[in-house]
């Protein structure tokens, strides 16, 4: 039997980034393409839930950027922000980081665990803007005009919060299955403030999405299951596809904003992750804008 060696994500490095306030570190995964940067600098895709998405994102870009004329995807820098844990998620910290303020406090996820708090999205966005982006720019040449933000579920809600509160922070915002319903649609107060004063000169591309089985439809494997009725009731509360489509239409009517909604066939709330990570890569690193 041959000797085993770790299987690494190609050309990616991992850094436990302690913020300036000496709080808990974030685990930052960064992929910088080999070779010299373009004259204008690399486009950059920032991603939440970094532990869960970094491998998919890097491989999606590598597979397509080798054939740019056929895929319309070029090389770029990928920065995925996660946590120093072994699994795909840190549910406690992501609840705080991705939840728009003011937030609320909820019972622990399990016995003898801390209470769950939301409302830290403003602090998390400040970390990205004031600390992480300058650090990335110190490592390689960046095209500041071509920066994108991807988030899924709570991360999709965070992407919308970033658009509404710091609309110039990114050029492209990808909100996959965004939890717009969360806390009685607390995101709406940020939306309304944004709508009332869209910044002059804004150019923002917004992609919202949902899976086919985030509609009123159940996935085939859910039909007849013990929790069928519970899932149907949950769908009436979250309305993921309806709220995302309505949000896209509302945003697309604003000056300087181009917003679209995509429905992904055969996908549920979690299986949509790789499909929308790929869409984020395609949007962030597109060579030509065909729309």
Automatic annotation (TrEMBL):
Pfam family, one: Esterase
Annotated GO MF terms: hydrolase activity, acting on ester bonds
UniProt KW ATP-binding keyword: no
InterPro entries in UniProt: AB_hydrolase_fold, Esterase-like, Siderophore_Hydrolase_D
Top-level lineage group: Bacteria
Keywords: Hydrolase
Family: Belongs to the esterase D family.
Protein name as annotated: Alpha/beta hydrolase
Organism, as annotated: Mesorhizobium loti R88b
Upper lineage: Bacteria, Pseudomonadati, Pseudomonadota, Alphaproteobacteria, Hyphomicrobiales
